[in-house]
């Protein structure tokens, strides 16, 4: 097995780095910080267009839908480099894998080029007040009315609902069927009348998390649907197959540079901080316990990276993707929590001061990440549920 990048991939990485050095200016980074990592201000949109013009978004998507028909590893390289400076391009949460797998020709032609141009982005509308880990218990209803569906219900923790153009909505279409079998997915424009979005501010909003805080958005949302009429053509996949379409999309969306980087960037930050704060030879870099711990975290980070590469290579070769994304979703967030806790131990009391304190370290970014890291083991599927999937699908154990 060859773990090295090809010369072409190394050239691509260099090109992306040069692009970032030239175009990802401090103004753009300030704008990203202002509007939140995932929403885009005018300068960011301009820069994003340049990225799209270079063919760096949707690299692995088919050419007929605006992609390059290229390699997922190339896509990973682009995401990884942009992720390092805190700018999200394409990648996880795009909804594209499920649309490619289950969408109609019309949906693929509409959504995929729109995603590449940055004109379309999805909020994930799965969780409800009474249906989180037990998602199959969801109650949001979609009732057929001729060529339309009428939606009523509530979604919870819908993170991009205030900034996304569409919601990737899971709703119950057959209440009589067994729980997993009466569910469908709809791709619903957020501007449809009857949809109300209310903010749910998170722990990262007060005081505001500084740039480079990778864990936790400042805002998530509640979304209410009151007699929302949508054309039946908004349905993704066959009626009542939403559980399987949704699971496929989620699994594929769990794979990618962003999940891996979320954990690994923090390792890089603390290693750099320790090296830069030598304190005349008496700094933490001289402490054997610190060196030992950082080396251990770094080794774990490489495992994270290899798990990600394995998943991507599997998808690329058209292999069956069963438990790999779930395993990665356990390892990467738990590694991230360990990293933030170790950082807190190394930095001591000052390292726990948030952005609002003038005595904080590095603008409070380490403290905010410490606060936010634990939720990465809950969102997008909790660690307990992911472990259960690894036990069942990976190890062939019976349902617990
Ligand atoms: C910051 C953040 C952003 C989010 N963004 C989105 C989003 O954009 N879209 C969206 O749809 N959802 C989103 N979520 C929701 C997330 O997916 C749910 O929080 C998650 O599925 C857990 O559901 P719950 O919060 O209702 O907890 P519960 O389902 O009540 O679970 C509580 C705890 O019990 C454990 N547990 C539950 N059942 C089992 C079981 N059978 N076996 C073992 N352990 C179990 C869980 O692992 C968890 O630790 C977000 C969550 C957070 C925190």
Please outline what is shown here:
The protein has 12 helices and 8 strands. The protein is of the alpha+beta class and 400 residues long.
Major sheet description: 4 strands, mixed
Provide the CATH superfamily of the largest domain. Butyryl-CoA Dehydrogenase, subunit A, domain 3
| Fraction of residues in helix | 40-55%
Shape: globular
Indicate the CATH topology of the largest domain. Answer: Butyryl-CoA Dehydrogenase, subunit A, domain 3
Structure annotation, total helices = 12
The CATH level-2 architecture of the largest domain is identified as Up-down Bundle
In total, the number of strands is 8
Number of domains: 3
CATH class of the largest domain: Mainly Alpha
What value does the average pLDDT take? Answer: 89
**SSE class:** alpha+beta
Poorly predicted sequence stretches spanning 5 or more consecutive residues:
none
Helix and strand succession? HHHHHHEEEEEEEEHHHHHH
**Taking strands numbered 1, 2, ... along the chain, how are they ordered across the largest sheet?**
1-4-5-8
Rounded to an integer in angstroms, the radius of gyration calculated over CA atoms is 21 Å
Task: Report how far apart the termini are.
Answer: 36 Å
What bound compounds does this protein have? flavin-adenine dinucleotide
